[in-house]
Amino acid sequence: MSSLCAWAGTSAPGADAQIAPLPPYTSVPPQAPEPTPAGSEIAAPGAPTAIIPGWSFTTELASSIVGSGNSVVLEPGHSDLVLFFDATPPAARPVEFRYRLTEYDNDWTVTPGRIAHYRRLPPGHYRFEVQAHTPGQPWQTAVAVVAVRQKPFLYQTWYSYLFVSLALIALAAQLLRQRDQLLKGQMGIVLEERNRIASDCHDTLMAGFAAISWQLEATAKLFKDVDETLTPAAKSCELARSMVAHCQAEARRIIWDLRDPHELTDILSEALSRAIDAHRLRDSVQTTFEVHGDEIPIAPGAVHHLVCIGQEAVTNAIRHSGCSTIHVALRYDEESLHITVRDNGRGFLFTDLAVRTGHFGIPVMEERARKLGGSLRVNSAIDSGTEVSVTVSFQTINYLPHQQHYIVPWIGV
């Protein structure tokens, strides 16, 4: 070591003249090797390459190979497939394989064996891939590929699904058509029965009311002739006449409702408008109708009762108030609806004596409002006109206890 240091620290005579100066040193960074494109690796000489000699549908014995080539087709019902693979050229060292069935296996399966067994393959198209290598070496050899197709049963094909879907749609349409025809037939039977009842009422009941009214008028005339109109018998006769007149009016309305040629509706404004138009044709009183708020459909049975209340209020105003104008307003709130009938007639003082004098319109309207779960209010004053208003909640209007059968809401009774 000392001699080496002495040699390095001293120089021979003339050594400076013999050593030429070195050029300036520039460091060149090492360049990284360019990446090799995937799949372009070249296998080492003698590396094993995978081959697929054939396949079987029964056992895993190599002697049971029944087919070979680039594709295999499994008929419906044959869902077991055994694929055989090997390596070439034969190597003295152990060989390891990896395989996968695309669209079925999630990843490669590494095995030293030479068999892949698949059971119960779903219908579809697959690719069986297998690759070989020497343990410890990268997977650089070519991949052997076989196309696999599992045929579906007839009921598993897309056109069978389409046929079943179309058949179900046709069946549903037929059931709906039959149900519609059944409902129309039942409604036709009910409407026919309503017409029969209306005819019987018109021919018998109305004739009986007319006969009773004539007899009462004759009796009232006898009381007038003897100047006994203030006796209890005369008052009772007058009350009976008023009751018969009211019953006649109600009977005419019921018969008209039974024979109403218009279609049933669940839109209250349409039904009210038709009723008001009928009054305009018969009477000279100016009648207006307004709708406020967003209208929603309600049960036809409720429409019937509300229209009857409106008709009764308009009829009473025309007959008893001596008015020149009647205003009908229909208002829809969030939870209820309101009908208001206002006239500019003479008005009256509402007392319980109204029933005893033969005026039954208000009790009938109250009863109809009660059936709907609503309330009726009458405001009137002498020379200030009369206002009749009914309020019904949506929570009760569509769930009437007498409308449980599915035909009743359509008929509207």
Can you characterise this structure?
- The chain is α+β, with helices and mostly antiparallel strands and 413 residues long.
- It is 40% helix and 21% strand.
- The protein is built from ten helices and 13 strands.
- The strands form three sheets. A five-stranded mixed beta sheet has the order 2-8-7-4-5, with no helix packed on it. Strands 9-10-11-13-12 form a five-stranded mixed beta sheet.
- A hairpin with a 3-residue loop joins strand 10 and strand 11.
- It is rod-shaped, with a radius of gyration of 51 Å.
- The N terminus and C terminus are likely disordered.
Low-confidence stretches: 1-41, 352-356, 401-413
Q: Let me know the number of strands.
A: 13
Instruction: Output the helix-strand order.
Output: HHEEEEEEEEHHHEHEEHHEEHH
Rg, nearest Å: 51 Å
Mean pLDDT: 78
Enumerate the strands of the largest sheet in spatial order, edge to edge or round the barrel. 2-8-7-4-5
- The tally of helices reads 10
The span between the termini is 128 Å
Q: Give the amount of beta strand, in percent.
A: 15-25%
Which structural class best describes the helix and strand composition?
Answer: alpha+beta
